[in-house]
Amino acid sequence: MNYALIFAGGTGTRMSGAAKPKQFLELHSKAIIIHTLEIFENHPQIDGIAVVCIESWLDYLKGLIEKAGLKKIKWVVPGGNSGQESIFNGLKAIHDDPATSDDDIVLIHDGVRPLINGDVITDNIECVKKNGVAITVSPAIETIAIVDGSDRITDTVTRDKCRLARAPQSFKIGDIYGSHQKAIAENKFDFIDSASMMSYYGFSLYTVLGPAENIKITTPSDYYIFRSLTEVKENQQIFGI
Predict the structure, then answer these.
(1) Residue 239 pLDDT exceeds 60
(2) CA-atom Rg of the chain in angstroms
(3) How far apart are CA 2 and CA 124, in angstroms?
(4) C or N: which end of the chain has fewer Cβ atoms within 10 Å?
(5) What is the model's pTM?
(6) Which one has a higher pLDDT value, 7 or 159?
(7) Taking the alpha carbons of 170, 77, 82, 30 in that order, is the dihedral positive or negative?
């Protein structure tokens, strides 16, 4: 079985002046989180979806899911005090389901990355089957400069050796759930993402190449990029360009 865990727990503090959390901002009368969920809903290899949401917005999200007619959403659970805790809440819901086994696959994805495509989902699943871990990346298009505490450049890394870590990040459920349990036991709550946690606990990370437009919508400029790219895709479908 293959599951998606969609993390939609942020409050969107960088989306200046927004009345709603960023995942609920709309494009064409559809919330960003629904744009994201539909891609996983429509993928034939995804068997179930868990969504983690700010607790005070749970009922609102459930209403959006019902309106959109999404059928693969099996769990809608409240987030925690951090991204790490929120993801664990979603993992626990999937892991504790009697139908779930430790060898099942989970794709952990940001609810505000709606520009993912089906090929990336497929490639993540196949990479986990082969290697146990799949981390979606995109190529770095600039040379990376390493600086010290005084903003002095101490080294540069050529872009051909660099990748930007994105999402989904995918694992066998038993492995990622077990790593979270270790982190809780060790009182470690500062992992920046699931990939860094898995690396810390000794797992090798394997990459899946994703599209450059697979951005995380956190600022107004990101939203406008999302809108523009969506309109381009719609025009391609309508006019065949």
Answers:
(1) no
(2) 18
(3) 10
(4) C
(5) 0.89
(6) 7
(7) positive
User: Could you tell me what percentage of the chain is helix, strand and coil, using 3-state DSSP and rounding each to the nearest 5?
Assistant: 40, 25, 35
Instruction: Judge residue 74's burial from the number of C-beta atoms within 10 Å of its C-beta, 0-12 exposed, 13-18 middle, 19 or more buried.
Output: middle
What is the helix (H) or strand (E) element at residue 7, kind and residue range? strand 2-8
Instruction: Report residue 92 CA to chain centroid gap.
Output: 17
Q: Over the stretch 87-116, which tens digit does the pLDDT of each residue have?
A: 999 999 999 999 999 999 999 999 999 999
Q: What pairing do the DSSP bridges indicate for beta strands 153-157 and 48-53?
A: unpaired
Q: Is the Cβ–Cβ distance between 182 and 201 less than 8 Å?
A: yes
Give the C-alpha separation, 11 to 20, whole Å: 8
- Residue 46, phi then psi, degrees to nearest 5: -90, 120
Give the Cα separation of 139 and 163 in Å (integer): 5
Question: What is the percent of the chain with per-residue pLDDT over 70, rounded to a whole number?
Answer: 91
Give residues with Cβ within 8 angstroms of 47, minimum separation 6: 1, 2, 3, 72
pLDDT level of residue 214 (50, 70, 90 thresholds): confident
Is residue 179 within 8 A of residue 197, CB to CB? The reply is yes
Do 209 and 138 form a contact (C-beta atoms < 8 A)?
yes
Q: What is the DSSP string of 165-229?
A: EEEEEEEEHHHHHHHHHHHHHTT----SSHHHHHHHTT----EEE--TT-----SHHHHHHHHHH
Beta bridge partners of 117: none
